Amino acid sequence: MYNFKEIEKKWQEYWEDNESFKVDNDKTKKPYYILVEFPYPSGSGLHVGHIRSYTAQDAIARLKRMQGYNVLYPMGWDAFGAPAEQYAIKNHIHPKDAVKENIKTFKGQMKSLGFSFDWSREFSTTDPEYYKWTQWQFLQFYKHNMAYKDTVPVNWCPNCKTVLSNEDAAGGVCERCGAVVIQKEKSQWMLRMSDYAEELLKGLDDTNFADKVKLGQINWIGKSTGVEVDVELSCGGKFSIFTTCIETIYGITFFVLAPDGKLVKELMPKIENKEEVLAYIEETSKKSNMDRTELNKGKTGVEIKGITAYNPVNGKEVPIYLGDFVLGSYGTGAVMAVPAHDQRDYEYAKEHNLEIIEVITGGNLQEKAYEKYDYLENKDAKLINSEEFSGLSVMDAKKKITDMLVEKGIGRVVNNYKMRDWIFSRQRFWGEPIPMVYCEKCGWVPMDEKDLPLLLPDVAEYEPTDNGESPLAKITDWVNTTCPKCGGNAKRETDTMPNWAGSSWYFLRFMDPHNDKEFASMEAMKYWNKVDWYNGGMEHTARHLLYARFWVQFLYNIGLVPNKEMIWTRVSHGMILGENGEKMSKSKGNVVNPDDIVKEYGADALRTYEMFIGDYEKDAAWSENGLKGCKKFLDRVYRLGTKLNGKSEYSREVEILINQTIKKVSEDLLSIKYNTAVSALMILLNELEKLESISNKDYRTLLHLLNPIAPHITEELNEKYKLGDMLFKSSFPVYDKNKIMDEEYELVVQVNGKVRGKVVVDLNTSEEDMKKIAREIENVKNYIAGKTIVKEIVVPKKLVNIVVK
RNA sequence: GCGGGUAUGGCGGAACUGGCAGACGCGCUAGUCUUAGGAACUAGUUCUUCGGAGUGCAGGUUCAAUUCCUGUUACCCGCACCA
Asked: Which bases of strand B sit closer than 7 A to a protein CB?
């Protein structure tokens, strides 16, 4: 048992006093930027899950430093957001005080784990010096017409009287009180993220994100290509529909409009059954998103009476319906209904007794619609009931009908994206104030940049107001201001920015964190170039990453950052589950507190265990016994020091193994295979323990290789036995290419694919000799005796397989 | 429903480009040392009727398959009436 308490404290103090991990933007050295998602400093302290990714990235940071890179490994705090506000409401303290406390706890915990962060670059998104630039960037969005105010439906909890984010309204109920969430229209600031949909897709080619991360982004953007077609109305005027199945256009038997769309509002004066229609719209708005999807299996809706529409290809007059399965926010908010070939339309038609016209052969319309997934697979599927297109194959018809519509000027090939514009307003206190002012005369006016930051006021009440306004709305002397344009009376925007804002560009700030002239200098950003390696939870790979990429692409387009993509590799780690295999939670009582572990086993043991626990990208269940095993490993490393013989070369018996281990550890760490890197070190230790004595070089190399994962104990032992310069300041071991293969190897001999013998042979044994040796093994002889050798397969330096009959 | 992932001993998990399945660790068993053991060390540990069998299941390709192909089942994650 080594005294980890003393050792870990000693080295942590050394690193801190000497600012060992502080980096300058040193142009003479090659940069390497390693990033972990900065945490939200919650009241419950660091989670063992944080430690997994911080250790993994720390190991890479330490390795890269020893390999001569100028490594930036920063840490900061993403401290705006609802939990701090909740806490403040309950306890009547200012969120900034709660955040300060929590940051102190987090920072202390991080230091106790020996992470090599450059603390000189630390900041919090809640620092006015930081959010000044978040606000400044919002103004750039506004000035480039990328921010606008619009009325959109939002999640509204009628009980808490507040707007909820989609996350807070998961499952259609309010996360706080459990009440059913309804949709309510509110005027919100929006960012034109949908303008960037195509660029965000293309940009993925300039990244090295893991495939599943790229796929997450692609799915979220949700591109689909189809045709937008104009449809004439009986009352005059027209509207458009979007479809990806233009080949079914002759099958239209009705149209359906979104109840929450703009079109139905425009048509309202001409609708005969207004009351019925309005009632349906009202009913829809009361349903949550979930009601409209999963829970609501039936296809509700009403016919719009007094107006009909004409099929654009054959002029057939069909009715128009309202149905909540059509979303106002996707496509044009209106669909052509082809019940024969779309299951939703089919169900709707059955429920409302509407006509079904088959236009593609091969389905059984008695049972269900014959949908594109099926007919596209069916090579024999042909169009019918489609005038001159009848008889064509689906793919031909798709093209010819599209061409015809385009030619006539009533159709356009368009792309649609599921990704919407970014709703950027929150009716919350604890967020960046949006630096906009409303003037009766001038409308919305941006604040003057030189007046930033717009500080959050110090108040004692953070409760949302009854009408859903931000608590800021109640602070009249903050709200009332003068118009930056005309100088007249004006009011500030009282909504704040979403939590995602500050985290969309923090990685740029780390490159130049103390700059008070700009958010980061172009020079600094050019030097660091990109985040080489970004790690975070899978839960953030879709949204946070998309927001951050959008933000960066915008800044790039207005010339403020050097690259269109500022993140190169993105890796995500699996969760650490409780010992019972379930997600850690207080209610389940399976939470592991890292402080307790550090106290009882030491930081190095915890770090080593979390690297060893399993495949980094997969979830893993905590195991106290597993942790003990790693502690035991470190104890053995410690005791091994008593076997030193003072020699300065590798011991002959382990020379090959050491070279192999150097290769394995350096390669595994950089290919996110931390668990096998640790196991390679365990193997090396096992072998070293078998020797009578070990050389100083053997030992120092073992310590060096283990140093990125367990930095305290290794540094201590290196010093204790005076093995050389401090490990973190010296070059990481390099393997000798000529010494990773033994002079001999074990030749495996198979008969008919089954192992029947093994023999140690010289590395340079020829293929002929391999065969000869193989046939001479006693056991092999037994299996080939009396049989004919059909074939002999030789894999050089590995095996011989004798095929007999 | 769509998209993706996973499946290997009692457990966590290894296995490069198709070439010895079960590395490494945990647990377990026996032993050594000890006043003691929830310490340390040593040996063993997939199953087995000792012929073999074996990487969720059923097939296929191959001299050879955890690895490639086809089908299938279970579980996990993401999105979800996206026209």
From this structure: 2-5, 11-15, 19-21, 23-27, 39-42, 53, 63-65, 77-83
- CA of A574 vs C1' of B56, distance in Å? 23
Q: What is the pLDDT of residue A397?
A: 93
Q: Which nucleotide is nearest to A747 (CA to C1')?
A: B20
With bands split at pLDDT 50, 70 and 90, how would you rate the model's confidence at A166? low
User: What pLDDT, on a 0 to 100 scale, did the predictor assign at position A165?
Assistant: 64
The amino acid occupying position A637 is: V
For A681-687, the CB contacts below 8 A with 24+ separation are: A681/A633, A681/A705, A681/A706, A682/A633, A683/A657, A684/A654, A684/A657, A684/A658, A685/A633, A685/A636, A685/A637, A685/A640, A687/A653, A687/A654, A687/A657
ipTM over the 0.90 cut-off: yes
CB burial string A503-521: b at 16+ within 10 A, e below: bbbbbbbbbbbeeeeebbe
pLDDT at A770 over 50: yes
Provide the CA A120 to C1' B29 distance, Å, integer.
Answer: 55
pLDDT at A428 over 90: no
| H helix or E strand, kind and range, residue A241 | strand A238-243
Quote the pLDDT of residue A37.
93
pTM greater than 0.95 (yes/no) = no
Q: How far is the CA of A764 from the C1' of B68 (A)?
A: 31
* Of A534, A542, A504, residue with least CA distance to A217: A542
